[in-house]
């Protein structure tokens, strides 16, 4: 639809939708999901222990998980405990500077946890962060 002005020029209405803001929002959401996806590890259900001090996970690392049936996983893939040290070692990365997250179900016996920790130490990795979740206090609104 065109409008004519007094001096004979024609103006057309802006019938196009500007999708630039939409693309910006979608790209920001994509970046957020890309950053948080490795942390979620939604494939394996594990009830991690609750603690008062919990540090937020901010960087991407390999994740070793022990489920309630004492099965061991490396980044959602089942792994034999005897193969774990070899699978943890990344080519070209010094194990002393490599870091991993260790998630364990709260019902896993300490012996199974210690066996996995031993396998991690055999790979040369010394920087191990144990994943927990915060304790939710009932009276947090009263303080």
Molecular structure report:
This protein has 143 residues and is α/β, with parallel strands linked by helices. The chain has a domain at 39-134. Helices cover 27% and strands 21% of the residues. It has 3 helices and 9 strands. The chain has helices spanning 20-40, 84-88, 110-122; strands at 2-4, 10-12, 50-51, 62-66, 72-74, 77-78, 99-104, 127-130, 133-134. It has a 5-stranded mixed beta sheet with strand order 6-5-4-7-8. The protein is elongated and about 90 Å long. The N and C termini lie far apart (63 Å). Mean pLDDT is 78; it is low at 139-143.
Task: For this entry, give a set of tags.
two-stranded antiparallel sheet; elongated; 5-stranded mixed beta sheet; alpha/beta; single chain; about 140 residues; disordered C terminus
Give the helix/strand layout.
Layout: E1 2-4, E2 10-12, H1 20-40, E3 50-51, E4 62-66, E5 72-74, E6 77-78, H2 84-88, E7 99-104, H3 110-122, E8 127-130, E9 133-134
Parallel strand pairs: 3-9, 4-7, 7-8
Antiparallel strand pairs: 1-2, 4-5, 5-6
Quick structural overview:
Helix content is 27%, strand content 21%. By secondary structure, the protein is an alpha/beta fold.
Category from helices, strands and their pairing: alpha/beta
Contiguous runs where pLDDT drops below 50 for at least 5 residues: 139-143
Rg from Cα: 26 Å
The biggest sheet amounts to:
5 strands, mixed
Q: Total strand count, please?
A: 9
């Amino acid at each position: 639809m065109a409008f004519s002005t007094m001096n004979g020029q024609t103006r057309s209405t802006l019938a196009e939708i500007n999708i630039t803001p939409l693309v910006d929002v979608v790209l920001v959401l994509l970046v957020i999901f890309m950053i948080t996806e490795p942390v979620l590890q939604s494939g394996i259900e594990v009830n991690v222990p609750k603690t008062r001090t919990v540090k937020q996970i901010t960087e991407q690392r390999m994740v070793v998980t022990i489920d309630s049936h004492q099965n061991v996983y490396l980044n959602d893939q089942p792994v034999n405990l005897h193969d774990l040290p070899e699978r943890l070692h990344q080519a070209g990365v010094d194990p002393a500077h490599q870091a991993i997250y260790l998630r364990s179900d709260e019902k896993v016996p300490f012996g199974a946890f210690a066996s996995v920790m031993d396998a991690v130490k055999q790979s040369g990795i010394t920087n191990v962060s144990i994943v927990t979740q915060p304790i939710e206090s009932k009276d947090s609104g009263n303080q």
